[in-house]
Design brief:
The protein is α/β, with parallel strands linked by helices. 42% of the residues lie in helices and 20% in strands. Helix 1 runs parallel beside helix 6.
Length: 157
């Protein structure tokens, strides 16, 4: 949480290889802002550039930062969040989520998508809420599950 007790959420974006990641991240940011939760996007350079192009007026995306810099800040106890949503479509995404599970106090949500979302979900061995859907080009399967999670995610903690 921040100094003024504002609730915050970290949205962690890895390589934007799968098309649905950017649209679902913007959708999640929108939902968080509607619930008065300040979203912060941490991502790879490519993921951040896609977000900048998708939201050039920064209507949704107000704060974006480098993924590794954010992990360093959390590890160094300079910053933390109430909620953390990690977008995952490969093994490195699972590694980032596992790192967050151990360095952050945030309630962790793993959002698995892509051709092998269900198989990847089976590899998770750390405490988190798992949301998985086979979504590659069509974001709707994961959006529906994300909507369900958002109903209760913001109420916890």
């Amino acid at each position: 949480m921040t100094e003024n007790n504002e609730k915050t959420a970290l949205i962690l974006l890895g390589c934007p290889q799968v098309p649905v990641q950017t649209s679902l991240a913007l959708y999640l940011v929108h939902g968080l802002k509607q619930r008065d939760i300040r979203p912060v996007i941490a991502g790879t350079t490519a993921a951040r550039k896609l977000m900048e192009v998708a939201d050039p007026g920064r209507y949704y995306v107000s704060e974006m930062t480098d993924l590794d810099d954010t992990i360093d800040e959390i590890t160094g106890k300079q910053r933390d969040f109430d909620l953390c949503f990690v977008f995952i479509h490969n093994d490195s995404g699972i590694a980032y989520a596992g790192t967050m599970a151990y360095i952050s106090k945030a309630r962790l949500y793993t959002l698995l998508f892509g051709e092998h979302a269900e198989e990847l979900a089976g590899e998770i061995e750390f405490p988190c809420e798992v949301v998985a859907a086979k979504a590659v080009h069509n974001p709707m399967p994961l959006k529906r599950k994300l909507d369900e999670v958002m109903q209760w995610a913001v109420l916890k903690r």
